[in-house]
Specification:
Radius of gyration: 15 Å
Helix content: 40-55%
Number of strands: 5
CATH architecture: 2-Layer Sandwich
Distance between the termini: 9 Å
CATH topology: TATA-Binding Protein
Number of helices: 5
Order of helices and strands: EHEHEHEEHH
Largest sheet: 5 strands, antiparallel
Strand content: 15-25%
C-alpha cells in the first residue's frame, strides 16, 4: 500500500484496499469499538447527486473525544475550528480509493499550541494513523 507523508498543507493521505463506503464503514466500527464519539457521516457524492451534479464517491466522518481535544483547546481555542477530527474517504479519477486526514502535528503548529501539548498531539497523531491503517486494510 502506498502511503504519503504529510504535505505542506498538513494532510496525510493513504491508499485503501476497499471502496469509500467500506473504508468508512470499517473506520466507523473501529471508532465505536474504541468509544470515540461519531458526530456525523456526510456523503458528499449523495449531496452532489441531489443537485444534479456528478461527484465520485466522497464521504466524511467527523469524530472526537473531549478528553483528547479539550487540552488542545485549553492551549489555544482556535484549534476548535479544526476539531472535532475528520477523515475523508474519496475515489480519484483512476478509481483508486484514498483516506485523508489532518496531521495533528501540523494542526498544533498552525494554532501555535504550547510545548506542554506535544505528548497529547503525538498520541493523537498515533491514534489517527492507527485508525486510518486499520480502516484502509
Amino acid at each position: 500500500m502506498k502511503t504519503s507523508t504529510m504535505s505542506e498543507d498538513g494532510l496525510v493521505t493513504i491508499a485503501t484496499k476497499f471502496s469509500v463506503k467500506e473504508t468508512l464503514d470499517r473506520l466507523e466500527a473501529d471508532l465505536k469499538a474504541k468509544g470515540i464519539t461519531l458526530f456525523a457521516r456526510i456523503d458528499h457524492a449523495a449531496g452532489a447527486t441531489s443537485v444534479g451534479m456528478p461527484l465520485r464517491p466522497t464521504e466524511l466522518l467527523i469524530f472526537g473525544n473531549p478528553k483528547a481535544g479539550t487540552p488542545l483547546m485549553q492551549s489555544n481555542q482556535t484549534i476548535g475550528i479544526d476539531l472535532p477530527l475528520k477523515m475523508l474517504g474519496w475515489q480519484d479519477a483512476e478509481a483508486k480509493v484514498w483516506l485523508t486526514y489532518d496531521d495533528p502535528v501540523w494542526l498544533a503548529q498552525r494554532h501555535r499550541l504550547g510545548p506542554g501539548t506535544a505528548a497529547s498531539v503525538n498520541a493523537l497523531a498515533n491514534v489517527l494513523a492507527n485508525l486510518a491503517r486499520a480502516a484502509a486494510g
